[in-house]
From TrEMBL:
InterPro entries: HerA-like (IPR008571), HerA_central (IPR002789), P-loop_NTPase (IPR027417). This is ATPase. Transmembrane segments: none annotated. It comes from Syntrophus aciditrophicus (strain SB). Pfam families: DUF87.
């Protein structure tokens, strides 16, 4: 029977030469394996970069990952059993390696368990041993009972299966990073598929009485919710065989027969999103825009009645008189212009009086009489000419008081209940511009001039045929139905995955569509928790994250852009989503361009091949020191291989993602240049069809008509 001491002795490959908290230097024995170790029970490649070694101590064994191998010269050879130090002064080679401590391996009930951190560091001269096959698998897999979602296998650990805890992976946010073509999309598809399939196989199915099989149908669907925002249209056909199927939404014209039309009506936008897309100035335009949205959402549309015209006229004159406050209107032609303005005002409000009723009519008539008395006191006529003497400050103050008396007769601060400018209540967005113009006229003064550009932008947005299918669909949809389709119905009955194909969304509103969709998802989960006191676990997946969650750049403008809104909502999801059950998965090929706020909130990473120096530098700052040696392998990772690190994995692990069949892969293959160039694969071109769809039917009809100035034949 082999004793523990003799077993450790048979696995010893060197001794500790120096110890630091982040690096341990090891001097290899002269008879340690040089290529393949046979003393672990199975042939094991050793020494290898990123392989594991153990350093036994009183609490178990410190697990180290090999980060450096090399040969150093010594003034004496290292030979066992001979004390010949100093006899010969020649350079002798000694093999050495550097090891980063990553955890402690413990034995419990004949099972190995890895714990993060090091309880006790080894000392100089302590033995370094190779882990057995069982120990290596325990180090890589973690042997965690909650690791339920298989991701792939570990090539450097006997192809041991790698599984992750979905609560940690999705609940604490995940970033999938790597160069284009490195396999990010396939990794995302494999991860979503594996999570749904694992949940489906783990559902506890109750015993079904004989004859009741039909009643049980559908109850074993996983209550999972994955929402994929797909700006490139890659995932539409990946998940059709999962659970109750995959809900695919696409912007018209539909190219997928299984897809439904994606709509995001403009009435679902909140006031900040309206301000961003219409570029509303914060001081002059945004308050009027917010008031207009409040009125439309509460069905209190302003019309240009006589009362509203009177109010606007009074406010306009008050604005004009402000320039004379404290000084009066003195000197020609100022006094003459002021008298003419007051005279025209008297004519206007006198003309309104026959149509007015009640208290407002009485106030207006009294104001007209009082202001007429002031004007007549300063009016002069001579030789057929008429003019005005100086108006003192007291005269103009009297006029202002009578105008204010008229304005007080209008209802102040009408109560609209709980409706505000952000309430998701339907209204016709086409009337927003006209309603803004009515509000500006009611406000009087120069308000109409301030909002002219705003109303022009809104009219342009609502009349753009490229956007109508998304923001102003022909068929109306309620907020309840939108959430039921995109977030998922009760019990996941309509499928665990929703793919929103945004490949044909106009770029002008692409950021806004993604921002509004994400905000609606987050706020729906917030309200779900408020009403049920429980979370509704949901995963939001964003492809091409560097485009939509880019770094905040100073642009010297107080008006937020749709890109700012998009980054802002994802920063909010990253900070607050976990509290409401919303997990975030980001996929990007340029991590150095991502928002630091979002990236810093990601606690797990799947790192594919990354060759850019800036991206590598950023990632090295995000991960702990003991994993940086493994990151040096990033530039040479093959496709389908990635490094898993973070809270979802106890130790950084190299993972070969499981293979997907052709029908399960995203449509992100590299273009087949050579096969097309050599006519092996035909590529017929019909530019007429493409341009007709691109320009629209009206433009096509115009092309068929004779050109202006041309000859019609």
């Amino acid at each position: 029977m082999t004793s523990p001491i003799s077993k450790i002795s048979s696995l010893t490959i060197g001794t500790v030469e120096s110890v630091a908290p982040d690096e341990i230097k090891v001097l290899l024995d002269i008879d340690s394996p040089r290529n393949t170790a046979l003393n672990t029970g199975v042939p094991t490649p050793f020494p290898r970069i990123n392989s594991f070694v153990l350093l036994p101590n009183e609490s178990g064994a410190v697990v180290g990952i090999v980060v450096w191998l090399g040969v150093e010269r010594s003034a004496y050879p290292k030979r066992q059993g001979l004390k010949d130090f100093g006899l010969i002064d020649l350079p002798f080679p000694l093999r050495k390696m550097a090891v980063c401590p990553i955890g402690t391996l413990l034995s419990e009930k004949n099972k190995w368990r890895l714990e993060r951190g090091v309880q006790s560091f080894p000392s100089v001269g302590d033995p370094v041993i190779l882990p057995t096959r069982e120990q290596t698998i325990a180090i890589v897999t973690g042997q965690d009972k909650d690791s339920r979602v298989p991701l792939g296998t570990c090539p450097i650990a006997y192809d041991a299966p790698i599984a992750v805890d979905p609560d940690k992976l999705f609940g604490r946010h995940l970033a999938v990073l790597g160069n284009t073509g490195s396999g990010k999309s396939c990794t995302l598809a494999a991860l979503v598929r594996s999570a749904v399939e694992s949940a489906q196989t783990s559902i506890k199915k109750p015993e079904i009485p004989a004859g009741a099989e039909e009643a049980q149908n559908g109850q074993d669907n996983p209550n999972a919710r994955f929402i994929i925002l797909d700006p490139n249209g890659e995932y539409s056909k990946c998940f059709q065989d999962l659970g109750a199927g995959c809900r695919v939404f696409q912007v018209p014209p539909l190219t997928n027969t299984d897809a439904a039309e994606f709509t995001l009506p403009a009435w679902m936008w909140n006031s900040s999103e309206w301000a961003a897309v219409a570029q509303a100035a914060p001081r002059a335009q945004r308050p009027l825009l917010q008031e207009a949205l409040r009125n439309l959402r509460s069905n209190k549309q302003i019309t240009l009645t006589i009362e509203n015209r009177l109010r606007a006229r009074c406010k306009s004159l008050k604005s004009y008189l402000l320039q004379f406050a404290g000084t009066g209107a003195s000197g020609f032609p100022i006094n003459n212009n002021c008298g003419q303005q007051l005279s025209r005002f008297i004519e206007d409000i006198t003309a309104y009086c026959p149509t007015l009723t009640g208290d407002i009519k009485t106030r207006t008539e009294r104001a007209a009489a009082a202001i007429t008395e002031v004007v007549d006191s300063r009016k002069w006529t001579s030789g057929g000419r008429t003019g005005f003497n100086d108006f003192g400050d007291n005269d103009l103050n009297t006029v202002d008081q009578w105008i204010e008396n008229v304005l007080q007769g209008f209802p102040q601060g009408e109560d609209v209940g709980t409706v505000n400018e952000d309430s998701p209540l339907p209204f016709d967005p086409h009337v927003l511009a006209e309603h803004l113009e009515s509000l500006a006229m009611q406000e009087g003064g120069s308000a109409s001039q301030f909002i002219s550009t705003l109303t022009m932008r809104i009219k342009g947005i609502m009349s753009d045929p490229r956007m109508n299918g998304v923001i102003n669909p022909d068929s109306s949809i309620s907020l309840k139905d939108w959430l039921d389709l995109h977030v998922g119905s009760d019990g996941g009955a309509n499928g665990p995955v929703a793919v929103i194909d945004l490949s044909l969304v106009p770029y002008e509103i692409l950021h806004l569509v993604i921002a509004v969709s994400s905000r609606l998802i987050l706020e729906s989960l917030q309200r779900y928790r408020k009403h049920n006191n429980q979370n509704l676990p949901t995963v939001l997946v964003l492809e091409e994250a560097h485009t939509f969650v880019a770094k905040r750049l100073p642009h010297g403008d107080d008006i937020p852009s749709p890109a700012d809104m998009c980054r802002g909502i994802f920063e909010r999801v990253a900070r607050e989503g976990r509290k409401f059950g919303l997990g975030l998965v980001l996929s990007s090929q340029r991590p150095s361009e991502l928002s630091e706020t979002v990236l810093s909130q990601c606690n797990s990473f799947l790192l594919h091949r990354i060759t850019n120096d800036r991206d590598q530098e950023l990632i090295s700052r995000l991960v702990p020191d003991n994993a940086r040696g493994l990151l040096r392998e990033l530039p040479s990772l093959p496709t389908r291989h990635c490094i898993l690190l973070g809270i979802a994995s106890k130790v950084p692990a190299l993972v070969e993602v499981k293979h997907l069949e052709d029908g399960q892969r995203p449509e992100s293959d590299d273009p087949d240049f050579w096969s097309v160039w050599t006519n092996e694969e035909p590529r017929p071109i019909d530019w007429d069809k493409i341009t007709s769809e691109w320009a629209g039917s009206e433009a096509v009809a115009d092309d068929d008509s004779p050109q202006e100035g041309g000859d019609a034949q």
